[in-house]
């Protein structure tokens, strides 16, 4: 059963976008594949994303799917997903993490972990057709991470896809803090809000181990030294 608090369910139908989900404005086709700007201390990068393209390749041609977004709800992501004819659930995962755990040590407390899961991931089995995890898993302790991955395995339908990002340098003490906005089927607007300390970082081998219960794991490396990971359930 869903928790009492608002889960951020947002429904939509096919809108003014083209069938491929990309904008029909001629100017969009001329946009640089990689550009950046600075606004109010936030560095914004627009770039192509092979992981995002792979994610949307899975849902292309389908409608009425249910997608979970681990980032705070943004109008850009809401509009893009709903204009493709899908339902979107948004969870501000990092905000919930901050509200439930005062320190990394708290993330190993079984009671706190269970309470967090009820707040953030209290969904029926097989609820979702896809999950946009982004980079939030780097901020979870091993105990909490294992519990979250286990819950994802339960609430996502078999043969569905999840997209997650991990920084590729596993020796960094601090990593850029990003938010992600979908612009096209293969294009992201990436906003960097300074840096923050991850709880743990991963290499390819540790990620394969983390998602060993899932069907497959595929990696793409980006210019920002982010490892984009497609996980097939």
What is the architecture of the domain at 9-20 and 61-174 and 199-232 at the second tier of CATH? Answer: 3-Layer(aba) Sandwich
**Overall 3D shape:** globular
Strand line-up in the sheet with most strands: 1-5-4-6-7-11-10
CATH superfamily (homologous) name of the domain at 9-20 and 61-174 and 199-232? Vaccinia Virus protein VP39
Q: What's the overall average pLDDT, rounded?
A: 83
- Which sheet architecture does the biggest sheet show? 7 strands, mixed
How much is the radius of gyration in Å? 17 Å
The name of the CATH topology of the domain at 9-20 and 61-174 and 199-232 is Rossmann fold
Structural account:
With 233 residues, the chain is an alpha/beta fold. It has a domain of 160 residues: Rossmann fold (3-Layer(aba) Sandwich), CATH 3.40.50.150. The protein has 7 helices and 11 strands. The chain has a 7-stranded mixed sheet, sandwiched between helices. A 4-stranded antiparallel sheet has the order 2-3-9-8. Helix 4 packs antiparallel against helix 5. The longest helix has 14 residues. It starts with 8 loop residues before the first strand and ends with a strand. The N terminus is likely disordered.
């Amino acid at each position: 059963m869903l928790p009492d608090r608002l889960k951020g369910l947002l429904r939509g139908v096919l809108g003014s976008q083209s069938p491929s989900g990309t904008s029909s404005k001629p100017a969009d086709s001329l946009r640089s594949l990689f550009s950046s700007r600075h606004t109010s201390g936030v560095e914004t990068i627009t770039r192509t994303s092979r992981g995002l393209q792979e994610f949307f390749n899975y849902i292309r041609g389908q409608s009425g799917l249910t997608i979970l977004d681990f980032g705070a709800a943004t109008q850009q992501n809401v509009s893009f997903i709903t204009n493709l004819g899908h339902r979107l659930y948004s969870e501000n995962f990092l905000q919930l993490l901050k509200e439930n755990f005062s320190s990394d040590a708290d993330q190993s407390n079984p009671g706190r972990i269970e309470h967090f899961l009820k707040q953030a991931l209290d969904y029926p089995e097989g609820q979702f057709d896809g999950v946009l995890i982004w980079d939030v898993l780097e901020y979870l302790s091993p105990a909490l991470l294992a519990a979250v991955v286990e819950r994802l395995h339960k609430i996502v339908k078999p043969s569905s896809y999840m997209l997650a990002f991990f920084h590729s340098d596993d020796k960094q003490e601090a990593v850029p803090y990003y938010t992600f906005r979908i612009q096209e089927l293969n294009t992201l607007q990436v906003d960097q809000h300074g840096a923050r300390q991850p709880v743990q970082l991963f290499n390819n081998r540790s990620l394969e181990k983390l998602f060993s219960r899932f069907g497959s794991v595929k990696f793409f490396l980006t210019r920002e030294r982010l490892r984009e990971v497609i996980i097939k359930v």
